[in-house]
Amino acid sequence: MGLAFVGPYVVLMLAFGIIPAVYAVALAFSRADGGFAGLDNFVRVITDFRFLPAVQHVAVYLVLWLVMLTVLVVVLALVLHAVTTRWVSRALRLLYYLPGALAGASAVLLWLFVLNPDAGPAGPLLKAMGFETFAQTIQPGNLSLVFAVIAFWTGAGQWVIVMYGALNNIPTEVMEAARIDGANPVQIALRIQLPLLRKWIAYMAVLALAAGTQLFVEPTLLSQASTGVVPNDYSVNQLAYQYAFNLSDFNGAAAIAVLLLVVSVALSAVFVLRGGLFDTEEP
Amino acid sequence: MTLTRSARRRLVPVSLVLVGLALAACASPAGRTSEQAGPRGFTEAEQVAGSPITVWVDASRVTAVDAFTAANPDVKVQVETYDGSANGSDSFKTKISLLDRAGSGWPDVVFSTQNNDAAWASVGAGGQQPFAAVLNKGLVKDDLLSGFTKGSLDPCTVDGAVYCLRNDLAQDVLWYDRSLMDQFGYKLPTTWEEYTELGERVAREHPGYITGAAGDPFTPEIFFWPSKCGASGVVGPRAMTVNTTSPQCQRAAQLVDRGVQGGWMTDLSVFSPEFVQKYTGKVLMMPGPAWFAGAIFNNEASLNVPAGRIGAAAPLPWAGEEPATGNVGGGTWFVSSHSKNLDAATRFVDFVTTADDYQVAKAPGYPAYAPAADKWIAGQERSGYYATDLSALTVAAPQVWSGWGAPAFSQEAVWARTMQPLITSRQPLEQALGTWGQAIVDQAKVNGYTVQ
Hints:
The structure holds two protein chains of two kinds.
Chain A: H1 2-28, H2 40-47, H3 51-82, H4 86-101, H5 104-114, H6 123-128, H7 134-137, H8 143-168, H9 172-180, H10 185-213, H11 217-225, H12 236-245, H13 250-274
Helix pairs in contact in A: 1-13, 2-13, 3-8, 3-10, 4-8, 5-11, 8-10, 10-13, 12-13
Chain B: H1 5-26, E1 53-57, H2 62-71, E2 77-81, H3 91-102, E3 109-112, H4 118-121, H5 142-145, E4 157-158, E5 161-162, E6 165-166, E7 168-169, E8 172-177, H6 178-184, H7 192-205, H8 219-223, E9 233-236, E10 239-241, H9 247-262, H10 273-279, E11 285-289, H11 292-297, E12 310-313, E13 332-335, H12 342-354, H13 356-360, E14 366-367, H14 370-382, H15 391-396, H16 411-418, H17 420-424, H18 433-446, E15 450-451
Parallel strand pairs in B: 1-2, 1-3, 10-15
Antiparallel strand pairs in B: 3-13, 4-5, 6-13, 7-14, 8-11, 8-12, 9-10
Helix pairs in contact in B: 7-9, 16-18
């Protein structure tokens, strides 16, 4: 019976996860004509002049996004949980969730307007910050932050709801005991709620990291909208795409994909171990 | 996720097929050589008479397809619109690369807004033969080929073989608003030096008016190419020369720097809503390609300048030099070497590049096919829109400086990422010429060029 439940997932994971990954590893160590290439493909992509900037872009973006996501999502969830008026709480949950209902590409298209000081609702704010035109808003130095904000806007709401659910799972006796002991809301948050949320936060960080290292849709659309000022090889994944479909170098593309896989698995491992995600004993 | 029993059963064969595909892809053959070429210069697919042809065009060229189907109702044409590879998006190359990988599904005819596609389409990739069919070895008749304006097929020609037909020329001229010039009492400049002086005078006397635009990725093709800046020398199928620090490049950089910093050149893209909002009625002069007329001046969605005001002057020389000009795109038509109906595909490209029904009656740009160009000019002049005759375009057509070639990558994309942000943030280009050159060299090398 257990097999029947796991079976479909295993099949899908093999078809769309494991087999492509094995294929990528095989490609990464092969030459275009099929022979064994050793580390040639890796050397070629790492010495490419576009590789280090792309890594740097994604790294800065990840740091900004993960910090923003963790801090703000937890704070928002705690605030939401503290709201006791029913309709306010419901309205807020819907509001947080709404942006996430827009699929990736359409959310970015929406942001093309938001980032335009002449067209978007945030125009006065952007102008106050010294951005007069769309081209100025998306200057290279601002991009990591811009992408982090877009990702936060589209992705954070769902996590606020998830965290809210997790907070509801904390037994009321524990909370009550803390209150009777004289803890104020801040102390409850820091001493009771946060430690009990640790697994959830780690879970969020792992999934956000996996999505973040694959940054692709946002810079690709922004590249087209900015007629190339945002380069089409801004992120590591985009560079892999350029290798595959512009230079017809699928082996180089696979090498980048494998590097990306290794790095994100390593980083995920850190979160999983530090976050105690796989600990099975009851708290 | 929950799946029904039957869905699960279906997934097993699907995954087996995927494994099979993965293995098949592992064993892709090595690139084919031209030794197997057929009588017309390439290996032809088995022909199926009367089969429909698939045509990729950008939105503006749908009228070309309509004109063809109206005149040739017997040919079945399937149209697919895409971005035309505009602004260095390279989508033509990307899509073909994917189809090369798949080994099927190629379109029969493709329109590209760029000039740099023959450089890659003439070379096989991913184990497939070159995408572009050779046109000058039997497919397109010689007398038709010889009708194209001199030099216009250069971007299509690799090692003597012609791989595409040029749709339109995009030679730069000096567009100007004659009514405004008269009103302000200005005389047309005759050299780039006079142009600079006049620009600075405009900034002093009529601030808010502009005499040029430097906010698009094709800025180097308007200011650096006519200055004979050697940023894009293509000397062989995979060999380039790049020199971006020559005096010719420096004077062009100084010109743009002075213009943008002096406020008499805009740093906005001429296609941006901000440009239209800010400069409608305020463009005094604008050096730029032939298609500026239809795309910017005589376009309701853009500046929408009323009839009788816009004139065209011949390209400006630098003082003491022969006039030279640049070129901003000008579309190209490709026939696929994989086409199952080469006859219909060839008829299609012949028609859209030369027939009066399209090139004279409907085309927005200056036709590359010389007989059509003369009639097109006459038609434009008859329209009564222009304040001058359009002889400047005819003068400019053969003046395009031949030292700026079309490599397999987009020069516009390199400019957009390295130099455009400097213009936007008002930093001088002159100090960044070396960086620009290095970016071109880097891009050339990853595309397999040797740079001398």
